[in-house]
């Protein structure tokens, strides 16, 4: 999100910077300085003092140019830490940022072990100094060393790491109450190769951070590389929905015959062929629906005591619902469970053949008012109430007569259904069947996709 920038506050802060600048530069330097900062040309030097010239230049600067001037100041002029932080906060709050609640920050700090970061103490301190006011080293010749936050961190975090916990450090930095953009940049810095030049250590931190970020709709997402190392940026996840599912009808082997046993309470019953349909009716929490949640439901509903047996039979039952003719769907289902085999209890469940809409009448009976895309290939319920639909598109999505004739109306209906889902808060991702038909090619496609979607590195990458 972004707030409306406080331009009055921004102008006042830049005026404060001008006091520093006129002391730093001579009369002859001011025209080049103003040009570099994007300010209008100052009055001639024979008409005013340096301070008056800079103040007049700033006064002639329109409001819509102030953010550019402020950024130029931050990029090119050394400032004392409090001055720099105030200016940064106003500028950053006027741009896009992700909100990270105080509770999430504190829970992350409690679990965060900084051992990896402390292998590179100079890099770590450089990051802290770029975002927080660590003070300046001071020595009182008439008494003992008075200390600064920097020296305290060097002693209690770097030299004697057992002195302060990560939570203590965050308290000293005032990170728990810092503006959202500053804390977000702090997380990005902790994940960066400039601070942590070790990809495995980077990913360990990101995996930990994302476990706390995803329930509040955020993620450290890999976006490119820098010098061969992954580069992570804090991003909002999909918008999600305020509602949580009541009934999940999935792994169906035909259209369910549903009736309400209590219309007031939205209680449903499968009237016929209940063995051909699975209905998950447990509450879905803030972490979404994990494989471990689905497995507990399966064990309880089927009275299976042995976890290994339950896991195998649940997988087999869901796999049996996949269309025989769709190698792409089968590869997606198999590869997801193969890629995250060692992490399966902690990853979202992949629900096949999921009923997103349901209508007791057929499309032919309903006509133009019929809902499209009643059943989708896969659904995942992620933290932050995100609902992610995965579709593997074969020729039947855009042709008729067994693929012999292109059908633009059929394709248009599919796209209309997608738009409806997105307006309802779903995220829809479509794969072409040819992408997934070959298992090895599918492995490359899905490894990158699920790593980005989940913010979680697979057990092994191709």
TrEMBL record:
Highest taxon, organism lineage: Bacteria
Residues of the AbiJ-NTD3 domain: 99-265
Name of this protein: AbiJ-NTD3 domain-containing protein
Pfam families cross-referenced by the UniProt entry: AbiJ_NTD3 (PF18860)
